[in-house]
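Incident log, support desk, overnight shift.

02:14 A customer reports that sequence design results differ from what the structure should imply. Their input is reproduced verbatim below. On-call engineer (initials T.W.) acknowledged and began investigating.
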């Protein structure tokens, strides 16, 4: 498996599939069936691919983990398109999803590490949000040094869910 920058249209279908499979596995029981159905796409249409491609082009760094197919992706942003809780000198991890068949195999860690390496020197903190009840995601980030620094509410498919905001200090004075 290699982690690399996303190659545009050729990677989008794999990104959408990994996202959809990860959402189904991670959020079953956390989100309503209606919310899952509204958000999850496992077999993307041309319209889905176009919509995703347009959104991913707003990112500063989209990384994919791939061998013979895309098995995960991460979307890092530090200029435009960040969430409201991401401030000056900070970057946001908008998404990191891995196909559930590849969970616990280091794919997410490899994506996170490559994303941290891609951050500009001016970034002091990486921030993200996870659903507050998503224990797997919270453990993933906490074991990698992220600290819970806030909470908020997110809306998915017209429904509101509690979310936790996590922060990792990445500035020059905090790295190795």
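02:41 Re-run completed on a clean worker. Output:
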């Amino acid at each position: 498996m290699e982690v690399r920058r996303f190659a545009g249209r050729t990677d989008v279908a794999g990104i959408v599939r990994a996202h959809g499979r990860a959402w189904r596995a991670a959020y079953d029981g956390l989100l309503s069936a209606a919310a899952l159905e509204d958000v999850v796409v496992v077999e993307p249409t041309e319209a889905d691919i176009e919509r995703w491609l347009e959104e991913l082009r707003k990112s500063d760094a989209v990384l994919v983990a791939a061998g013979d197919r895309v098995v995960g992706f991460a979307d890092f942003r530090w200029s435009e398109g960040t969430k409201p809780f991401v401030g000056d000198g900070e970057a946001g991890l908008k998404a990191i999803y891995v196909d559930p068949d590849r969970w616990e195999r280091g794919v997410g860690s490899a994506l996170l590490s490559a994303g941290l390496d891609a951050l500009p020197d001016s970034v002091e903190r990486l921030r993200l949000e996870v659903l507050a009840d998503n224990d797997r995601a919270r453990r993933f980030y906490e074991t990698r040094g992220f600290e819970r620094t806030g909470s908020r509410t997110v809306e998915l498919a017209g429904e509101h869910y509690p979310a936790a905001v996590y922060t990792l200090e990445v500035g020059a004075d905090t790295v190795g």
